[in-house]
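Researcher: Please predict.
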Amino acid sequence: MKLIHRMKLLMAVVQEMGGRLTTSDLQAYLFLYCHEFVEHNHYYDFIPQIQGAHSLQVDADKTTLVAKGCLEKSGEWIAKEGMTRFAVELDFFEKIAIQTMKNTWQGKEGGDMHTYLKEHYPTFFTDLVRTVSTPGGDTIFYTIGYEGVSLETYLNKLIANDVRLLCDVRKNAFSQKYGFSRGELQSALGRVGIAYRHIPDLGIVSEKRRELATDADYRQLFDEYERETLAQQQDKLEELRLLLEEHKRIAITCFEASVHHCHRSRVARALGQREGFEYAIRHL
């Protein structure tokens, strides 16, 4: 069976931990594996949830593994019989890590493991009393890109900065990167109490973003964007200002990791230059 490596790891955890696991136990084992039993190859990142650390990528991978005939869902996640033993396909350190985790936790009550996690990793547990309508402290306008980070790492940045609303300023809110197309992103944000709004009028058509090689190329594109787009979108900039005053902490988002290579830098600058705008602007 041809699987990407992190899916082999997921299957190995299910198989080595008895062949069948609940959703919460599978998430807990993978969290422990990544945080306590290996010093490299952290294939999964996690966000805080009521039941503890949760990886959205794990959810997506389980769906793929069911479709490939490796797992079945029947109250628990069950490794299909007759499958290869995936642990043998892992590297030496990964095999040792899974065996150590098995020796430490297999046979103990699931409640013991979750009690341990809550005691040692309390920041990954939340009662979700945080709501999108609850204002933060100081009013701050953020920008953030998702290039090069997992969905969970991206969400944790927003949580750490108490962002209440994410405004997507891509022209087309679609991404080949898992979790960042409009529906996926909106759903993921909802799980951590962050609202979502798409403002495509502030985007740049994808054709204009091709073949950008130098800083001069980016400056030329963004100068044109200011003249031809932002100058015509004063109502959208005002919308951002009003949303900021309502939610206190909002962020605009696009793809690029570097704000200097993203048009969100010009959106933030234009907003900051509006009369009466006295709020902090920060780039995550």
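Model: DSSP finds ten helices and eight strands in the chain.
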